[in-house]
Amino acid sequence: MHYVDTSALLKRFVPERNSDAFDEWFANHAPVVITRLGVLEMRCALARRRRAGQIPLDREQAAVKEVQTDILDGALVVRANHDEHLVDAYHLIEQLPAVALRTLDALHLAAARQFGLTAIATADHVMRAAAIALGLEVVFFGPEEP
């Protein structure tokens, strides 16, 4: 089973670059794992897109319902975050000194590792670099770096 971070999962609900590739991958790999943090981060990302004028209110509301449907249907398996994830995320900063790891990325990686998952889907370059450094398989949906 794969862990999916918000940068990749957002492509399922908001059309953007590589959304079609993610949809095809998702259809072949669901169910996938996310955390409660991922659900919150997705909700915030949708609201941020609306406030920035990138999506209208009705698209935001529809996307929220689509996320809920994927959870209820079992395509998204939501796992709880634990204090151990915070501790592991803290130590990842020292373990990966060359990677500019952000707080939420560190928490996603810590959760994936603690759940025993060895593969992660992302569209974020920093998350990809950190996951590779940790020996995880990475499915990447972001743009290639220039």
Q: How much of the polypeptide forms β-strand, as a percent range? A: 5-15%
Uncertain segments of ≥5 residues (pLDDT<50)?
none
The CATH level-2 architecture is identified as: 3-Layer(aba) Sandwich
Q: Helical stretch count?
A: 7
DSSP summary, beta strand count: 5
**Number of separate domains:** 1
Topology order in helix (H) and strand (E) letters = EHHEHHEHHEHE
Helix content: 55-70%
Q: For the report, how would you describe the main beta sheet?
A: 3 strands, parallel
End-to-end Cα distance, whole Å, is 31 Å
Strand order of the largest sheet: 1-4-5
CATH class: Alpha Beta
CATH fold-type name: Rossmann fold
User: What is the CATH H-level superfamily?
Assistant: 5'-nuclease
C-alpha-based Rg, rounded: 15 Å
Query: What is the typical, i.e. mean, pLDDT?
Result: 95
Structural class from helices and strands?
A: alpha/beta
Shape: globular
Kindly list the characteristics that best describe this protein.
alpha/beta, about 150 residues, 5 strands, single chain, 3-stranded parallel sheet, globular
Architecture blueprint of SSEs:
Blueprint: E1 3-4, H1 6-13, H2 19-29, E2 32-35, H3 36-51, H4 57-73, E3 76-79, H5 83-95, H6 103-114, E4 119-122, H7 125-133, E5 137-140
Parallel strand pairs: 1-4, 2-3, 4-5
Helix pairs in contact: 1-2, 3-4, 5-6
Description of the molecule:
The protein has 146 residues and is of the alpha/beta class. It has helices spanning 6-13, 19-29, 36-51, 57-73, 83-95, 103-114, 125-133, and strands spanning 3-4, 32-35, 76-79, 119-122, 137-140. It has one domain (3-140): 3-Layer(aba) Sandwich (Rossmann fold), CATH 3.40.50. Helices cover 59% and strands 12% of the residues. α1 crosses α2 (19-29), α3 runs antiparallel to α4 (57-73) and α5 packs across α6. It starts with a strand and ends in a 6-residue tail after the last strand. The mean pLDDT is 95.
